Predict the structure.
Amino acid sequence: MDVLNFWLDSYKDPMFLKFPIATLVLAFVGFLVFALPLTLLAYLDPEPLRKYKVQQKPFQVKKYFWPSIGRHCMNAAIMAVVICFLWPFLRLISNGRIVDGAMPAWYIIVAQILFFIYFDDFILFWIHRALHSGWLKRNVHSVHHRITRACAIDNAYFHWIEYLMIGGVGTVAPLITGTHIYVLYGWILFRQFQGADGHCGYVFPWNPAHLIPLYEGGDYHDFHHSSYNGNYAGYLNYLDRFTQTYSGAYLRWKESRALAGAKGFLKLNWLGGGDKKADVELGGNS
Ligand SMILES: [Zn+2]
Ligand SMILES: [Zn+2]
């Protein structure tokens, strides 16, 4: 009976609405706010912006728009059920770590967000590698890889298991450091921007995300979709560099852009490395 009371009482905690429910709503709405304008851009495919497209093939907006919206809604509903069920446990591990009192100093906020970005990308890389093997690849991740010419809304086109994995991971770093609930909201919104930007199919030189050291831009994950192998990190580049898992087609694209004078910001040298196997099997992104 005590266990039952503990379970039921946990839902009276105001943090139930402020932490898991509000972050899920923010993630759901925030993604649409970032993704819909970029998806409209892909749908219109305006001539002056074609020089910024990664692939010079037509987008598949009509084919995947409503299926992506459908999966976005279904996956969020599944996540809502899961977090409601797990909340008593989540409450135990987040109590005193996700707080809603006075805001911390600005430099604490900046340091935490930077840690979240790099830690999250590190974990996503290894999860993504796992998603590219065995049962997970055949039955879960292959759904997301039906998309070969991505636009922003396609970041919602996930199997629900992958959605739970990736969505859940986003709260690991904040739980490790402890953080203010508003900082967590900012982090969740940035993550939605990153998902939309990574799938948008364009690489804009004025994208402010390039100010983040090692941030790759929309071309990095686009080549993962067109090649299926290589470029496994979320949005940074160093792990693919160290593990030699860059898409070979992506390296050639970066080299050709560097030779053409495209500017990077704190980018690693593109020459050398790359996933030769992916290169041979899939023949690149042209
Ligand atoms: Zn993949
Ligand atoms: Zn993707």
Observations:
- The chain has one domain: 2-202.
